[in-house]
Structures are given as structure tokens and as C-alpha cells.
Amino acid sequence: MAELFSLTKEQSHTLYTAALLHDITKEKSPDEHITLCRVYQIEYTQTDIITPALFHAKTGARLARELFPLECNSEVSQIIETHTTGCVGMNLLQKLLFLADGTEKTRTHETLRELRDYFYKNPEENELYIHLDNTLIKYFDITISYLLKTNQVIDTQTLNARNDLIIKRGNHG
Ligand SMILES: [Fe+2]
Fold this sequence. Notes:
By secondary structure, the protein is mainly alpha-helical. The chain has helices at about 10-20, 30-40, 45-50, 50-65, 75-80, 90-105, 110-120, 130-150, 155-170. The protein contains nine helices and no strands. The protein binds fe (ii) ion. Fe (ii) ion binds near residues 22, 23, 56, 83 and 84.
């Protein structure tokens, strides 16, 4: 991804650091996440409590900064914080980690394999950023469809992030 988007050395380093640290609290229990939130005064919602798959982004962002203050600057922490839900106004590095998480090779679900193939089908260089946003919208749609089908809650940040990209694309169907 760093090569595809011609990231600078500094951007690549930031993305690489976020990639290494992004799941630092993934194995923690809901109670452990709540304890971390109390210790570090992190705001959390009922959705976080019942969805540990989301919760670890918030606690991970803060704990990574605490444990690795030299490596995890505020930009790295922000990328980690949005890697599960996305957010409104995502920057390039936030988008890349978010998408990398969904398209990495260990994701074998058919819809994600199709998403990976779609993303890497080598778009025109001048359309790279449009292609990235279109891929992200597809990824949000896959995620939201899955959550609907399996009767799970949908974090409002995910809906807002998806809507933000649709509005910015300017093609509302
Ligand atoms: Fe994660």
C-alpha cells in the first residue's frame, strides 16, 4: 500500500508503526477494556461494551501511546483509534490501515477476497484516491450488511464514516 500510494518515508514509518501496534489490546476482555477506560479516562459507549471487536481500537490507541511514547505519536494513536470503525474525515493513513485490516491475506471470507481483488486491480494512477474511497465504501457496505444479517449493533461512527465518503464522492445513487 505504501508503494501504491507513493507514501513518503515518514508516512510509511507512521503507517508501519500503527500496523504493528494496532491490535495491542485485542485479546483483552470487556472488563479489562472498561478498566483501561477508567484508568486513562477514555470515553466509551454501550456499543463498545457488547462489541469487543470495536472496543480494542479505543483502548489500544491509548495503551500503545502509554507503553511506546517514542514510537506512538498522536498521529499513530489516531490511526489505531479508527481502525475498526473508521470515522468522518479519515485521512489517507487512517484509510490505509482500516482497509489493510480488512483485505489482508488471512481474511478468507469470499466477500473480503473479492474486496481485496477489487482494490488491487491496479486503477489508473490519477484515479487512485477515488478508487481507494470506492473500495472503502464497498468495505463499509460489506461490514454493515454482515452486521444486519447477524443481528449485531452497528456503531454510529461506522455509519457516519460510510455516509461521509458517499457525500464526498458526490454520487448519491
Ligand atoms: Fe483490530
